[in-house]
Write a structure and sequence with these properties.
Structural class: mainly alpha
Strand content: 5-15%
Order of helices and strands: EEHH
Amino acid sequence: MAVKNTAQVIIGGKIITLGGYESEEYFQQVASYMNKKIGELETVPGYGRQPMETKHMLLSLNITDDYFKARKQVEIYELDLQQKDQEMYDLKHELISLRMQIEEAQKNEQEALDEKNLLEGKVKELEKELDEMLK
């Protein structure tokens, strides 16, 4: 069973306790991401003069934008993975088909060699009979 963890992190200069089933390292990564986004917004002219509610809304919108971009990228990767899976399936199918063709060709080759050996044996018998008849 998963254990619930807590960790104190610094976000926006304030100490906040995060809790959940994730590791402390994960909580630190979340805090780092949040601080990075806050830092990006602070570079926007006029951001510092906005009321705290507006700052929170801009931060939320910024993070939501990142989320949807990441989700879109995941969809692209999943489609790519599906295409590659289909290509791999097709290649495996082709490989199996080619192996079957090779086995069939080898079987035919062996049958042809056996028939050739049989015919060569008959030729030798006929040559021997012919030699005996000519004597």
